[in-house]
Amino acid sequence: EFPLLSIGQMIEFLDENGNYLSIDYGAINIGGDQIKWRVEFEESQFNSDELCDALWGAIREVLKNDK
């Protein structure tokens, strides 16, 4: 089981484990859906209405690639 991470801890983890991190907020139109948050990490994008969900998507990619 993973520990609960704050948004700040998730951002710090991604910053320490990658070369590129961008976080955008706003009405992003993707396939007709309005998404509030976009996290771009390395060459991937993670979109969600909740910032923590988008950040967690990027963290899963880091953990998956570390295996």
Highlighted features:
67 residues, alpha+beta, 3-stranded antiparallel sheet, 36% strand
Describe the fold and architecture:
The chain is an alpha+beta fold and 67 residues long. It has two helices and three strands; from the N terminus they run H-E-E-E-H. It has helices at residues 7-16, 51-65; strands at residues 21-30, 33-41, 44-48. The chain has a three-stranded antiparallel sheet with strand order 1-2-3, with helices on one face. A hairpin with a 2-residue loop joins strand 2 and strand 3.
Question: What proportion strand?
Answer: 35-45%
Please report the number of helical segments: 2
DSSP strand count = 3
Q: Main β-sheet: number of strands, strand sense, barrel status?
A: 3 strands, antiparallel
Order of helices and strands: HEEEH
Distance between the termini: 17 Å
Read across the widest sheet, the strand sequence of neighbours is: 1-2-3
Average predicted confidence as pLDDT: 88
Helical fraction equals 25-40%
Structural class: alpha+beta
Low-confidence stretches: none
What is the radius of gyration?
Answer: 12 Å
- Overall geometry comes to globular
